[in-house]
Amino acid sequence: MNLSGILVVVPPARVEDATRALNVLPGVEVHHVEPATGRIVVVQEAETVEGEVAALCRIKALPGVMLAEMVYHVFDETPPERDAIPAEMAES
Amino acid sequence: MELSRRTFLKSGVAAATAISVGIPISRIAAVAAAETEQDWRWDKGVCRFCGVGCGIMIATQDGKIVATKGDPDAPVNRGLNCVKGYFNGKILYGKDRLTQPLMRMTDGRFDKKGKFTPVTWDQAFDEMAIQFKKAYEEKGPTGIGVIGSGQWLIQEGYAMTKLMKAGFRSNNIDPNARNCMASAVAAFMQVFGIDEPPGNYDDIEYTDTAVAWGANMAEAHPVLWQRVIDRRLSHPEMKVVNITTFRNMTSEGSDLEIIIKPNTDTALLNYLAREIIQRDAVNQAFVDAHCVFCAGPTDIGYGMRATDKFAFEAEKDIQAREVEVTLTRDEAIGLGLDPEQVHTIAQSNTATAGKHWLVGFDDFKTGVEPYTLDFVAELAKGDSEESLDAFKAKLVRLADLYADPKRKLVSFWTMGFNQHVRGTWVNEQIYSVHLLLGKIAEPGNSPFSLTGQPSACGTAREVGTFSHRLPADMVVNIPKHRDITEQTWKLPPKTLNPKPGSHITKIMRDLEDGSISWIWVQVNNPFQHVANANHWLKAAREQDNFIVVSDAYPSISAKVADLILPVAMIFEKWGGYGNAERRTQVWREQVPPPGDARSDLWQILEFSKRLTLAEVWKEQAIPGLEDEGFEEGKLPDVMSAAQEMGYRPEMTLYEALFETPENKAFAWPDPVAKGHDNHTVKHLGVDWFVEKALFEEYAAFGRGHHHDLAPFDVYYQDDVRGLRWPVVDGKETPWRFNAKYDPYVKNGEIEFYGGAMKELVTGNLTGPTTQEKTKFPGKAKIFFRPYAAPVESPDGNYDLWLCTGRLLEHWHTGTMTRRVPELHRAMPAAVLDMNEKDAEERGLKSQDAVWIESRRGKIKAVIETTGRNRPPRGYSFMAFFDESVFVNKLCIDATCPISKEEDFKKTAIKIYKV
Lengths: 92, 914
Hints:
The complex is a heterodimer. Chain A is built from three helices and four strands; from the N terminus they run E-H-E-E-H-E-H. Chain A has helices at about 15-25, 50-60, 85-90; strands at about 1-10, 30-35, 40-45, 65-75. The longest helix of chain A has 13 residues, at about 50-60. In chain A, strand 2 and strand 3 (about 40-45) form a beta hairpin. Chain A starts with a strand and ends with a helix. Chain A is elongated. In chain A, strands 2-3-1-4 form a four-stranded antiparallel beta sheet, with helices on one face. Chain A is an alpha+beta fold. By secondary structure, chain B is an alpha/beta fold. Chain B contains 35 helices and 38 strands. In chain B, the strands form eleven sheets. In chain B, strands 4, 5, 6, 7, 8, 20, 21 and 22 form an eight-stranded mixed beta sheet that branches. Chain B has a six-stranded mixed beta barrel with strand order 33-37-34-36-35-38. A five-stranded parallel beta sheet of chain B has the order 11-10-9-16-17. In chain B, strand 18 (about 470) and strand 19 form a beta hairpin. The mean pLDDT of chain B is about 95. Chains A and B meet through strand 1, strand 2, strand 3, helix 2 and strand 4 of A and helix 1, strand 3, helix 3, strand 6 and helix 9 of B. Strand 4 of chain A pairs antiparallel with strand 3 of chain B. Chain A: Keywords: Chaperone, Cytoplasm.
């Protein structure tokens, strides 16, 4: 499971619309809003990194979004068991 | 994870994010953040990917990274990260991490045709030393090589340079930065006499204009691009221009997009220079006080082999251009020649491509005179569907922006300029434009070379890990520089080899033709990233060469190796990087490496124990060595002089070069560690602080010589987020060459004090006319360089351009980013972006599988006509991260003849349905 804190910036006049649009996206929750500057903090949850990246792209594509970048990442996983020789090396 | 914990964790993440970017939050939220992090240990670090050098904070718990965040105190990124920032914590934990040395063996012995078998470190180093001595005894110092990296830590690059140059007396060490930055470096040296930019990233917040030349910043340098976009939003005057060969993400944030044909940037810059003169916009006082004008030879070839002995049959027609070139019509015009005549030019200056001489302003003016709006617009227009008038209007608009004396302007560039058969020229030309205008070395006015790797500057360039370089901008072929280095390293005189070694492409060619037979690769993947790969794969696997690869994952280079040494990655070791704005940044070891993986530094030091001084400091044959004070073709025996200095023949290189009394004085443990571990020291079994000792030994080269670094401990202070060198009296230098900011400026307000190549003969555009040399200390050079066509262009058979490059989510050859399995699935195979109409014309549509074929090989891929990169007609683009779509099998290994950097941007291909 991957959790990311993402900063989204929109024009102050569009903060309400953007907040609504963000909350509708799967795995996205709006947590903090600073209306005067148009800054919004969302938390994105995804099963995979792929999901995280795709979600960030969706946020960037929302109307009015001027900036959406990751700030904070939490990794909640157990390191994998590894073989002495990775499978693809055994064939080389 | 149970719901309540997850909800709580999310509140904590949100609160911590808000705090990072300075959004006020409630006391309850702050408590949530604090509680989430209560058992974590936070420490500062630097992103391991591109050259921007973003600060990140790393949280660890129980020997594992549990969180990372953009460092709010880092002036580079101010709390933000791009997607790649994410990988810093992820890349350590891939399932296929290499954790044990692996050697090709059959029946318990090394066998080049054998299978990879786990071995101990002793077995690995034993075989590595046997094979090293075999090559070294037979071929001497030029028979071995090291391919290093712009991702090497400062200390790793320094240790390997010292081992190779002082120990093995070999200059065959070159970093992958050769193929990333070398053209930028060559131009810095030629123009300023000193490497690295005058300005810094803060120029963005002072400027009115940002022009990206051959730099898709939105994908390759997103955090910096964000600063450009912020400036555009907050400063109404701000204009952004994207000059590119195809529409890309950077176009989205730009006011003006100019799509040009490959290599016509050289013509476009001459148009700008001509316009500046025609409009009377030359900053005459600045030019008179601080500049000279220069020209050089144009018959310099393309950095290919001069023989076609090793070429595939299909390569031979292009190969022949290394010897003789018939100018195109546009080249003739650009050189002021009659375009109706045939001009066949022998390439006589391939070995002296960088030489140059002084000319007058009138010569410069004559040189740029042919570059009229009409000529350049016809030549450079890259999108056949754009009207010539519309394109001309854009060029005029661009000239308006540059020539406006009130407008501050930053030019950014990366691989479009650097990976270019005239890469050094085009770098020089952008400086020419800025120098003519005096728009340089002050806040907001800055020609700025972006870098692609985290320590291309800090290690490859500043430490001097290139085949011709020594630390602090010194070079092996200047006697005084060798003397200084020998004294600093306490070597007997004439230990260092004065003959520059093989650059990275030449190391590959040397493997192919048998002049090198042992190489060691660290922190990069050259068998994937060097162009024309089919040749080098064969040299590695089918010829009697021994290939050692230190790697973290099963890269292509690891797979073609004979011996793989598993490495510790980024936060599993102590280290430091230097970013593109001269900022040196460091971190502590945060977590232990897995299994038997060890730092590259530990590997270098352990291997140096396997050789004695008697084996290396004896007389050595160096084919082709001709240098004053040296017998032809030989390095002298320096052992007896060494013995007088207290060295003994049986001393190991480790004892002689690394475990010196001075270095042993840096004790481990050290309070600067604050309880962090050091596996390198632990496994060496020593009580001295290796990374600190080597940093301080290296820093001695630059202190007092324009490259001052602060003391090691200063960089570890809690309130320091890197410092931009030169750091003099504890103060960093934001803008160089400007007396307001740079303590090295001694004469006047502006002084280009770099000392290299500041004495030249005088001539005209065609050559020198005097023997007498003129000195011009403190000045920068304005070069005239003509338009030159690419070495190969599409024709009736290979009828499309292919350009290669990077994507946002994947970095370089993907060795690390592809290991995040989910991400690999997201972009499982690199696609070929091409124009929809070009596809239709070939009976193809988006998502069709095709063969892509060049003179050098063919690969299979899927085409994409609606992706984020939109090539114009006749042009295609593919990223190089994906080893399963091995694009460098197609690319030509031509280089800029001055910088020896390959041109990955211009290969002619054809495509057809599978």
